[in-house]
Amino acid sequence: MSIRFRLLASFSTVFAVAVVLFTLISYLLSVAITGDMKSVSRFYKIHYSLHPLTDEEETIFLDLKYMAKQDSEQLTDEALLAQYDQQLKMVQAGLFVRRDDELIYASPSIGEPEMRSALPAYDAANLSIRSTLNVGNRFFSYAKFDFPYPDGSMGSLYVMKERSPFAELVRTLLPILIAVLLAVIVLTGLLLYRYLTRTMIRPLEVLKRSAEQIKEGDLQFELKPHSRDEIGQLSQTFEEMRRRLNESIQLQLQYEENRKSLISGISHDLKTPITTIKGYVEGIRDGVADSPAKLDKYVGTIYAKVNEMGRLVDELLLYSKLDLRREPYSFERIDLAAFARDAAEEAALELEGRGVTVDLNVMANAPIPVLADRSKLKRALDNLIQNSAKFMSKPEKRIEVRVAIDGRHALLEVTDNGPGIPAESLPYIFERFYRGDASRNSGTGGSGLGLAIAKQIAEGHRGTIKANSIAGEGTRMTIRLPLADNGNEDTE
Ligand SMILES: Nc1ncnc2c1ncn2[C@@H]1O[C@H](COP(=O)(O)OP(=O)(O)OP(=O)(O)O)[C@@H](O)[C@H]1O
Ligand SMILES: [Mg+2]
């Protein structure tokens, strides 16, 4: 059974029960208030007995009553009576005057033959001057006054107004009442149904559609919860699930992409030296290297290429070990300033011959403690210095190694006055195999793994690496490492 159907069924039940209850309650209420059903109609009569006439009719009645008291002879003047009757007719009432047993004036607008016998008897004391009477099916309320005519005959005057009888009133009003009642119940039911479908069924349908989308493999959408209720929470959880699933699939795709590009990078970088070696070996075999000098040159080139390949394979091995977290780190507490000084001195000696000066700049008086794996950090720093030296294009070649403290971190920076890195390349230089010069055969050589390895090492130290560069002016590479706490000397 669908929720929609269940809702409809429960509304219909509530509707039926409401109708039955309403009938019962209204019956019981009227009995409880009035004692029995008939007294409701008695109430209706009493109300009109107390107020049979409206104010306007009452004024005319009082006029006529005054006349009856002062000069009752006038109440035989038919023309005068007709005039009063006319006034009463305008307000839907009528006049009756009786002398002894004879009706000397009967309002033609009400005119009822049986009225004469229905009119109450003469009552000289005028005990009851307002009341109601039934003539056939018709119901009247009236005010009356009894008076003596000058000749002693009994006179009565009645200002009479027709009212709808109670039974008829109920008969005309009941269908309207019941219709209104049913309309209210149906309308309330419809509104509730609409409200519930909007807040429950529609969100569920959206959820169902989303689940189908996921089943079809489409995860590129967003499910927005429309409320905070249980269904809203369900949508939220569902959206969270979609997001995580999407993330893990994207990650999987990226791994796949990485694997492909790694293989293509390796094959490309190995193929170039192999082609060269093959060419030279063929040269020797075919006797092209016919003199000892030529042979020496050929063998020298082959040896250099084999070295290049060996270095590339070493770098690849290191990178992949770092990437797979298979390369163990042996952390120790070191003074970064002393460490940088040693590295800078070594580099200065090595690069002296190429006309490159390496300066050291330590921005602290005390040692700068960091937890580091000496050999790996040295490898990262060397990669930075080698890059600065390798890409240097100016006649005056300067490299600065700088150490500083920044809050709770230590900074290890290598700055050069080289060609700089174009802004469009900056985001990619830490990716493996990325090299600024698209041609891999240029003089600078290299596999494009240097910065990728430096980044792995910086992150292995729970640090970061970033590059700042202005094309034409120089480059600054910054490794940021957390300072070792004084109390925390544990190695990891
Ligand atoms: N100091 C620098 N000045 C100018 N360009 C730089 C500098 N350092 C890095 N680059 C650019 O970033 C690219 C990536 O550097 P990375 O060290 O990863 O590779 P590589 O030096 O080309 O090769 P490898 O280090 O493996 O021998 C370089 O090819 C170069 O274009
Ligand atoms: Mg490099």
TrEMBL record:
Recorded hits in PROSITE patterns, A to Z, give: HAMP (PS50885), HIS_KIN (PS50109)
Q: What class of enzyme is it?
A: transferase
- Membrane topology recorded in Swiss-Prot or TrEMBL: Multi-pass membrane protein
One GO MF annotation is: phosphorelay sensor kinase activity
Put simply, this protein is called: histidine kinase
A UniProt-annotated Pfam family: HisKA
GO CC terms, sorted? plasma membrane
Q: Which UniProt keywords apply?
A: ATP-binding, Cell membrane, Kinase, Membrane, Nucleotide-binding, Phosphoprotein, Transferase, Transmembrane, Transmembrane helix, Two-component regulatory system
Which residues span the membrane?
A: 173-193
User: What's the catalysed reaction?
Assistant: ATP + protein L-histidine = ADP + protein N-phospho-L-histidine
Q: InterPro entries from the entry?
A: HAMP_dom, HATPase_C_sf, HATPase_dom, His_kinase_dom, HisK_dim/P_dom, HisK_dim/P_sf, HssS/ArlS-like, Sig_transdc_His_kin-like_C
Q: What's the source species for this entry? A: Cohnella thailandensis
Domain Histidine kinase stretches: 265-485
| Gene3D superfamilies, sorted | 1.10.287.130, 6.10.340.10, Histidine kinase-like ATPase, C-terminal domain (3.30.565.10)
Q: What is its EC number?
A: 2.7.13.3
